């Protein structure tokens, strides 16, 4: 059983920065892809960024150039650095571990 616990969400003004992190426990961490998704009420959960075990990254077009995903396999942590935040980034952010493990979510709110 994999457990994913997010931290670091909060309230920030537009243009500001936040970092969310996810600590994984349970099954070995290193060989699975990890990522971040987000969801707003009434909409489907959407991918924000993913990172493979080797460090290859992919980003949603809406966050390219502003968000950076990273992982520390030794510490079982995956993080998302979010810069130049926009009100449209407001959502609950979920940590994901392939194939189907999810964290409980952390709220990110960006005020205009």
Give a summary of the structure in a few sentences:
With 112 residues, the chain is an all-beta fold.
Architecture overview:
The protein has about 110 residues and is mainly β. Helices cover about 0% and strands about 55% of the residues. It is built from no helices and 11 strands. The protein has strands at about 5, 10-15, 20-25, 35-40, 45-50, 55-60, 65-70, 75-80, 90-95, 100, 105-110. The strands form 2 sheets. Strands 2, 4, 5, 6, 9, 10 and 11 form a 7-stranded mixed β-sheet that branches. A 4-stranded antiparallel β-sheet has the order 1-3-8-7, with no helix packed on it. The model has no long low-confidence stretch (mean pLDDT about 95).
- Compute the average pLDDT: 94
Shape: globular
| Cα distance spanning the termini | 40 Å
How many β strands by DSSP?
A: 11
Share of helix among residues? under 10%
Main sheet: strands, sense, barrel: 7 strands, mixed
Please give the radius of gyration in angstroms.
13 Å
Helix/strand/pairing class, anyone?
mainly beta
Could you tell me the strand content as a percent range? over 45%
Please mark out the parts with pLDDT under 50 across 5 or more consecutive residues, or reply none: none
**How do the SSEs run, as a string of H and E?**
EEEEEEEEEEE
Number of helices: 0
Labels describing this entry:
4-stranded antiparallel β-sheet, 0% helix, globular
Give a topology summary.
Layout (H helix, E strand, L loop, with lengths): L2 E5 L2 E4 L4 E8 L8 E6 L6 E6 L5 E3 L7 E6 L4 E6 L8 E7 L3 E2 L3 E6 L1
Parallel strand pairs: 2-11
Antiparallel strand pairs: 1-3, 3-8, 4-5, 4-9, 5-6, 7-8, 9-10, 9-11
